[in-house]
Design goal:
This protein is α/β, with parallel strands linked by helices and 426 residues long. It has helices spanning 17-32, 36-43, 91-108, 128-141, 161-175, 199-214, 231-242, 265-275, 289-293, 332-340, 348-351, 354-368, 374-399, 403-422; strands at 47-56, 62-73, 79-86, 113-120, 151-155, 223-227, 246-252, 255-258, 285-287, 299-302, 321-323, 344-346. Bound molecules: nicotinamide-adenine-dinucleotide. Nicotinamide-adenine-dinucleotide is lined by residues 155-158, 200, 227-233, 251-253, 289, 303-305, 325-327, 352, 355.
Length: 426
């Protein structure tokens, strides 16, 4: 992959997350006339660490997984980004996710750089003890990179506040004192922020409302389909339902549900707690994950994994608005098809910034050892999400760009400005 541009590759299928991330950056660089030297710096992650993660299984045997932590850019502040546990995690995916974090923090006006981490493992096959031992060993292996002034991990796919607590504890034990600010998304009992758990979903809701308002549409009776019923998608379904939207379809990795009259997320949550998946929920039509993306609805919210909307299905999406709660759910070429079809895409680096925004609030609270009320957290989150939406929407309207191009223009532009202001060492 190296430094090839998409043109060098004859615009071959840009389906991997890293190819998508690079193509988006290259496009933004061209549109905004970015200085070539800065463009080249931004194409490569600052540092990538690959680690071997050996840990003891319950039967006494040893398992070894591959882990990663990538800092894409730290020019505007400490590296920030989640940790993902998934069998498909590899270095390229982590690099892409880290690059998107850089732009996301810059668009939200948060003084962080971009990072991401992950372990190539299916955590569902591990016991709780195995998961803890693996997490503590992975945290030990990435200790040279993390710290409250250097790099602050957070939850992502298949990681949660308990895993953040283990990482915070591992780091603190090594330091000899408690360091709450080394991770965000941790339990409130050890310095977590109120409102962090639902922050990404709440941010997605604010983005959908801002979009509807900008397009002159009301909230009531808007129909929404959500792919991925995890931390982000599940709570987004609840918030949108409570706000008066009709959640017509949801899914998780096992499959999905459709009900034209609307689904009740609380009832689905009860079913999921017992059955372990949304599938089998009574009174709804079963649908596949690919069907969900093509459901007749006003707003489609991909909230699972990358690369689900591709050239193969982009012409079948029926929603008027796609709000990317997941990172990288639409490939570079699929995005062009959605744009040509007049579908309004709220890009990931804008739409799901609620998580990093409240992570920033959590980090600030930890450093000051002074904690805010949930109302304060949610109110400041809303202000940042609405401001970010309007900055991106105004630029998109002024320059006739898509929301993704405008978001990249702002994010890349702020990081480039920081580079040019600091100068090139030595
Ligand atoms: P999660 O692990 O809590 O939930 C993921 C959901 O996606 C689960 O319901 C899972 O069953 C489903 N899923 C997994 N593979 C799937 C597939 N192949 N097809 C359909 N569904 C599938 O993860 P999460 O934290 O909710 O993250 C979801 C997405 O949101 C990811 O792209 C993540 O990077 C992004 N994101 C998360 C946060 C956050 O604060 N957690 C912040 C920003 C962005």
């Amino acid at each position: 992959m190296g430094n090839e541009t998409p043109e060098d590759k004859g615009h071959a299928a840009l389906d991997s997350a890293w190819e998508t991330a690079l193509a988006q950056l290259d496009e933004a660089a061209e549109l905004m006339g970015l200085a070539p030297g800065v463009h080249e710096i931004l194409r490569a992650p600052k540092r990538s660490l690959s680690v071997s993660v050996p840990f003891r299984l319950d039967d006494g045997s040893t398992k070894v997984c591959q882990g990663y932590r990538v800092h894409h850019n730290v020019t505007r502040g400490p590296a920030k980004g989640g940790i993902r546990y998934h069998q498909s995690v590899d270095l390229d995916e982590v690099k892409a996710l880290a690059m998107w974090m850089t732009w996301k923090s810059a668009i939200a006006g948060i003084p962080f750089g971009g990072a991401k981490g992950g372990v190539a493992v299916d955590p569902k096959v591990l016991s709780r003890g195995e998961l803890e031992r693996m997490t503590r060993r992975y945290a030990s292996e990435i200790l040279p990179l993390i710290g409250p002034e250097r790099d602050i991990p957070a939850p992502d796919m298949n990681t949660n506040e308990e895993i953040m607590a283990w990482i915070m504890d591992t780091y603190s034990i090594n330091q000899g004192y408690s360091v709450p600010g080394v991770v965000t998304g941790k339990p409130v009992a050890i310095g977590g922020s109120k409102g962090r758990g639902g922050a990404t979903s709440r941010g997605v809701m604010y983005m959908i409302f801002s979009t509807l308002k900008a397009l002159g549409k009301g909230i009531d009776e808007v129909s929404v389909a959500i792919q991925g019923y995890g931390k982000v998608g599940g709570f987004a379904a609840q918030l949108l339902h409570d706000a008066g939207c009709r959640v017509v379809a949801v899914s998780d990795v096992e499959g999905g549900l459709y009900r034209e009259r609307g689904l009740d997320p609380e009832a689905i949550n009860r079913h999921k707690r017992e059955a372990g998946a949304v599938a089998g929920f009574p009174g709804a039509e079963p649908i596949s994950n690919s069907d969900l993306l093509e459901v007749d609805c006003d707003v489609l919210v991909p909230a699972a994994i990358e690369g689900v909307i591709t050239v193969k299905n982009a012409d079948k999406v029926k929603a008027e608005i796609v709000c990317e709660a997941a990172n990288g759910p639409v490939t570079f070429e699929a995005d062009k098809i959605l744009g040509e079809r007049g579908i309004f895409v709220v890009p990931d680096i804008l739409a799901n910034a609620g998580g990093v925004t409240v992570s920033y609030f959590e980090w600030v609270q930890d450093i000051q050892a002074y904690f805010w009320s949930e109302e304060e957290v949610n109110d400041r989150l809303r202000q940042i999400m609405e401001r970010s939406f309007h900055e991106v929407y105004s630029l998109a309207s002024e320059k006739e760009l898509t929301m993704r191009q405008a978001a990249h223009w702002i994010g890349v532009g702020r990081v480039a400005e920081a580079h040019l202001t600091r100068g090139l060492f030595p």
